[in-house]
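debug: dumping io for the single-chain case to check the tokenizer round-trip. Nothing else runs in this session.
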Amino acid sequence: MRLQLALAAVALAAVAPPASADDRAEVSTSLFAETRDGGKGGLTVIHPQADVGVDIGRFVSLDASYAADAVSGATSVIYQVDATTSATSFSDLRHEGTVGLGFHGRRSRISVSATLGTERDYLSRQLGGTASIDLPGRNTTVALAYSHSFDLVCDKDNGMLSPQEAKALTGADPCDKPGGIFGKDRPGITVWRALSIDTAQATLTQNLSPTMNLQIAGYGQVLEGFQSNPYRRVRIGENSPQEHIPDTRDRWSLSARLNRFLPRLHSAVHFDARFYDDTWGVIGGDVELGYSQYVGKSLLFKLHARVYQQTAAKFFKDAFFYQTQSTAGAYFTGDRELSPVRNATLGGKLTLITLGGDKPVWGLFDKLQLNVKADVLMLAVLPADNLADNPMGIDRQFIYGNSLIDAVILQLGLLGNY
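debug: decoded output
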């Protein structure tokens, strides 16, 4: 299973890998820890990553990266009223490698990349490209990005069973790619289902003054293929079939970011806003405020706060109604990312910058940056503030207790330019 911590952000990052102006090497590790009260489960993700970029001559650069996700924890397999009373342990390991080739002119840049990601029950393959140009005067930059993913998902072979009879995949089912061949079915046991993802983005960055700039981005994505969680079941009456969601999803978002440098304070303020919509009926938006402060020439401190809210997918129901009134049409799900959501994130980042000057840092780097970042994700839902009109309340379905702290994210990174 793929973990989607920040769906739109991950998609945007996949389309446009960061470009570098000079040779660089970066290693980082992130820890995502989800909280659950009373031993009712939780989730821990350790994400190590390494990136290397080198210039090949004056106009060409080569980038390569490797990342992994080690996921462990416990979660309820059945979405039902009493789902929080027990949890099933699981673990997974995902590997991902990316190579990119970039071409740089005086005012333009173009790059292409290829990514391969593997885990026991998922294969991700992606090709993408980005292009940008600085218009005359260098006050305006226009960028375009596009990627296509052709993925494979392991699923239970349910034959001719109807969606409300379908059985879910279990960890004991063989999705281990017999003979090393991805996508080889085992009739009557497991099958590999296709998922294609097309993602495009257009970005306009404009300098409004010597100390302020504005960036506007439009993002669109079309998903075609198997998108259900093959492991998740939903209690419908007396039965617990595998969740069933549409094979087609179109989504788009529009975002804006404003940065203002404050020369006297040697600091900057940031404002972000984003609107999101899709064909499943999920409508969301978020607002973020940030502040960056230099302390001397080598220390940078950042603070940010973000609030996000979305509506539920049109086929989503509270577990109470799935059990007492059946589904809202052909589709049903227990995915909390498709439920009504309201949350807030508070975080900070500390960067220590070391410049080599006449002598390289550690005998190799012109500049070295040590980054330490921490975020706290809070569910902004009070017991009397139900986002859905139902007797149980979404907070009772997904918070698993009285704590409003949903997760903690820690990151440690080292970036060297040479």
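debug: round-trip ok. The two ends are 38 Å apart (CA to CA).
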